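so my prof wants the structure for this chain in the tokens format not the other one, which i didnt know existed until like an hour ago. anyway here's the sequence
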Amino acid sequence: MIKNSLLPIFLLINLFLLNSEIHSQFNFYTGYQLIYDDNIYNNYLNTADLINNLQIGTAYNFESEINNLQFYYEGVFGDYKTNKIKSFNSNKVGIVNTHLFSEDYNPLNIGVNYSFRNNRDEFEVYNFRQISAYINYRHSLSETNFILPGYIFLRNEYTNFSVFSNYEHKAFLKWISNFESETSLMLSSEFNYKNYFDKYNFEGYANDGSFIKFQLNIAQSLSENTGGNIFVIYKKNLTDKNRYVVNDSLIYYEEEIFNDLYAFDSFDAGIGFTKIFGDNVKLSSELRYSVRFFNGLFAADLFGTELNELRKDNQFSFGLGIEYDLDRFISGFVLSASFNYIRNNSNDFYYDYSNTIFSFSIDYGF
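here's what i got, hopefully its the right format
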């Protein structure tokens, strides 16, 4: 039986399918990624490993001129060569319907998916289950201006850490404008709210959380095959309480376990470039600076002793990637490689680190 909260989604999908000439199509895609990461835990210990990632996805589409209904599966299988206990698999199944309302497209997307992640040994405490439902609509105000409102509902369940399980709501609005100067402007705002399954009446202990986020992105074509962009992102946390668990007199905060986005204010700024060579090679790069001010989470020394100041991180990162489309030789094949460097300066000694990542990927789909 379909839960009442999801019933309107299925009714809308059923409505769009009526009176349509439908064709079916099967899609398959897979990818292999080899990663060398010299700091897999992102902390001062600098634990390195070689990681093999295998991705598999299938989709079955029911298409008409104005509608596409898709059922899909996505799987990721990660194997760590040295730190075997960190190996995992994640799986997602879902359904999404895209409906076009006019010759200007104006697509409405409605979808539901279920995903889960399984870990090994000690890392089983991170096992994760999620149900997600979403809706978004891209409307053309003119030939060069668009708005994109949307909403996402998430049910996040940590099967071995139920104290952190929560319902999450995300609402967003984006404005996109394109100009004759080949400049593109994107403004977006987002509100996030989460409500924990379990409630506790402890002073300073969070039963919910929320934040707002604003983003500005300006992209510019520099030549026929070259483009650049700059962006700024500001996120303001609306709560200053935290969730945590206590084990043997030690306190483990949610942010330390799951990188909780509701634990800090942040500011990000960056610049990126993309260059296309011929029809097959794309080179991209990004330089980013971010600062995080943690709310109610004190910095600590390497012995776990809290200091008299809240944690603050200043992070510099750089990424470089190259992609080679092999379609002229073998249809559907793409080769890519990337390099990423992160330097995180923190007044919390445990999170003062650097991280270098090299990766090589091969992807195929039809």
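also thought this was worth mentioning. The radius of gyration is 23 Å.
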